[in-house]
Specification:
The chain is an alpha/beta fold. The chain has 17 helices and 25 strands. The protein has an 8-stranded parallel barrel with strand order 14-15-18-19-20-21-22-23, surrounded by 7 helices. It has a 7-stranded mixed sheet with strand order 4-13-9-10-8-6-7, with helices on one face. A two-stranded antiparallel ribbon has the order 1-2. β6, α3 and β7 form a beta-alpha-beta unit. The longest helix has 18 residues. The chain binds ligand TNX. Ligand TNX binds next to loops.
């Protein structure tokens, strides 16, 4: 997608990657017209003619193609939601039209009001309607939208119920989190033009009926590695927005690695002034001050997302060793590292100063992290073996527990002793893992991130311009077709806290590249985390997901136009108020 000077979004039909601005990534080998993979994918291969077509046949084919291209997008159905809701009861007689004088009314609790304000802010730019927000003891949906906190709804800490009738919309939940998730559903039920940042002419119709929804797993997350490449706060906030859209509730930040240390620690200033000044390649690196981090945490909290910070130990620590050589096994500062190897660095597990360092770092991090979970890494510490490794992990686990936090570690920490509440993040590529299953028997719970299904840094296909393939290629179907509840042998579903999609950034240098790898696989992982297994259905998912392409395009979000998804041939091009409708682009 490109954006014209006037700001209207357009699809470039000879591109498979849509991106705002000029940096669209083209992987389409045939630059000819009318050969978009999505069109070809939807219609199937066109047989080669055995003889010259007649003029009449050509005219008929051209007419058919034009009709397809110009067809109005199918109206949105109540079930067209990602992640799939638990229960959907459409009522085609209950459609409701959002009108210019609609009002949003919320329960008097500030948290309900905040969800209502969030909804108004989502709907105002594209509709151009004022959508005033008010509150009431018993909000009514009189030709408007009511957001109601109601204990009697009984859908847990994150569930919601959405009723759309001809007389208005009622969204109810026990918690503000439930209301927030319901707002995301409501947004998806409006036409894609709702993503426009300027007012557009559109029939803002919501499909009638009732949705009752609750998540399958309590933990649904994504990880952003800000250590291999550093990303600006605004980029992180935009990733938070993407998580919120798909009802993910945890953002794991991989804050430290060999190539850079990204979080300020007052007692160890050189971690950031020295350790933060590098990244993969020749970039300048960077770091978050505590105020920056607080901004991310609070932006995420406003979207009902908890930040899980990771300090990766004892390996992946070259940037810390450069800053503080007393942590290094030989007490000599290594050169800064800007390559992409893993497993060579480690803090000295035999030196007490290392544990003082760990206590200082986690102490300061705990103080600025409202969430309960602190991630201690633990992966790929190839040079710290056996009891030296488990002893180190056990001491770090105790330090975190004494801070009143719950420890998370990559599944390599499994052999260490259990501490209360311990969570392992499993990233294997084969569900047979007796060591992890044993840790679960000793009390650990799992966040599941299979390298060959959930790793967002894996390429989609051999021609994906960035990413790795060590865990295989992960197309959208591969990201979707697995079950977190049964994935790891001998681990019962009750021990599975949820799912997470990690994005490692050795090859990722910009927001557009983050989005290219995130979308459309993040919604696939989100659906595995949220939706009941009974709704799992690749055919249904791919057609629901297809409707999100025009949304992302309209919002200027880069995504990979995966050929296995039947993207609409022509996205709705919204008509800006007072501006002539742009010509549809017909190749
Ligand atoms: C493995 S999976 C790593 C990371 C790399 C990633 C690249 C894990 C816990 N560690 O250090 O960035 O592979 O895909």
């Amino acid at each position: 997608m490109t954006t014209t000077p006037a700001g209207e979004p357009h699809f470039c039909h000879n591109r498979r990657e849509y991106t705002p601005g000029a940096a669209a990534v083209s992987t389409n080998p045939s630059p000819g017209p009318a050969t978009t993979p999505e069109v070809a994918g939807a219609a199937g291969p066109i047989p080669l003619p055995t003889q010259e077509p007649t003029a009449a046949a050509l005219a008929r084919a051209a007419e058919r193609a034009a009709t397809d291209l110009l067809a109005a997008p199918a109206p949105i159905q109540l079930a067209d939601v990602v992640p799939a809701p638990r229960d959907v009861r459409p009522d085609p007689a209950g459609n409701w039209r959002l009108s210019p004088d609609a009002v949003i009314v919320a329960s008097t609790e500030p948290a309900a009001l905040a969800a209502a304000v969030h909804l108004a802010e989502l709907l105002r730019p594209a509709t151009g309607y004022p959508l005033p927000v008010t509150d009431a003891a018993t909000p009514q949906a009189d030709d408007g939208i009511a957001l109601v906190l109601d204990q009697a709804v009984g859908l847990g800490t994150e569930g919601y119920r959405l009723d759309v009738t001809t007389s208005g919309v009622r969204l109810s939940a026990v918690t503000a989190t439930g209301l927030f998730h319901g707002v995301q559903t409501l947004r998806q039920l409006l036409p894609p033009a709702i993503e426009s940042t300027v007012p557009v002419t559109e029939a803002w119709i919501l499909p009638g009926g009732t949705i009752t929804d609750t998540p399958r797993f309590p933990y649904r997350g994504a990880m952003l590695d800000v250590a291999r490449h550093f990303f600006a706060i605004e980029d992180v906030l935009r990733v938070v927005d993407h998580l919120a859209r798909y009802k993910l509730n945890h953002l794991h930040l991989h804050l430290t690695d060999d190539q850079g240390w990204r979080i300020a620690v007052d007692s160890r200033p050189k971690l950031t002034t020295v350790g933060g000044a590098t990244e993969v390649g020749d970039g300048p690196g960077g770091f978050y001050t505590k105020a920056d981090y607080a901004r991310i945490v609070s932006y995420a909290a406003d979207r009902h997302i908890t930040v899980v910070p990771e300090i990766d130990l004892p390996g992946h620590t070259n940037s810390a060793l450069v800053a503080y050589p007393e942590l290094a096994p030989d007490k000599i500062a290594p050169p800064p590292y800007t390559g992409t190897d893993v497993g060579f660095s480690y803090v000295d597990p035999t030196d007490e100063r290392t544990y003082d360092f760990v206590a200082d770092v986690f102490g300061e991090l705990a103080a600025i992290t409202p969430g309960r979970l602190l991630h201690i890494g633990g992966d790929e510490a190839f040079k710290v073996k056996g009891e030296l490794y488990t002893g180190f992990v056990e001491r770090v686990q105790r330090i975190v527990a004494e801070l009143g936090k719950t420890v998370v570690g990559w599944h390599q920490v499994a052999p260490a002793a259990h501490v209360d509440g311990r969570v392992l993040q499993w990233w294997g590529t084969n569900g047979e893992d007796p060591t992890t299953a044993d840790a679960v028997r000793r009390g650990a719970r799992l966040v599941i991130s299979p390298g060959n299904h959930a790793y967002l840094d894996m390429k989609y296909a051999p021609d994906t311009p960035i990413g790795h393939d060590w865990a295989g290629l992960i197309d959208v179907r591969k990201a979707y077709d697995w079950d977190p509840g049964t994935h790891v042998a001998d681990v019962p579903e009750e021990a599975v806290l949820g799912v997470e999609a990690p994005l490692w950034t050795e090859s990722v240098t910009s927001l557009a590249e983050i989005e290219l790898l995130l979308l459309p696989r993040l919604p696939a992982i989100a659906e595995l985390g949220w939706s009941p297994r009974a709704t799992h259905d690749w055919a249904g998912f791919r057609s629901r997901l297809a409707g999100h392409g025009p949304r992302w395009a309209t919002a200027g979000i880069t995504f990979h136009a995966a050929p296995e998804i039947p993207w609409p041939a022509v996205p709705a091009i919204p008509q800006q108020h007072g501006v002539p409708h742009p010509d549809p682009i017909i190749p």
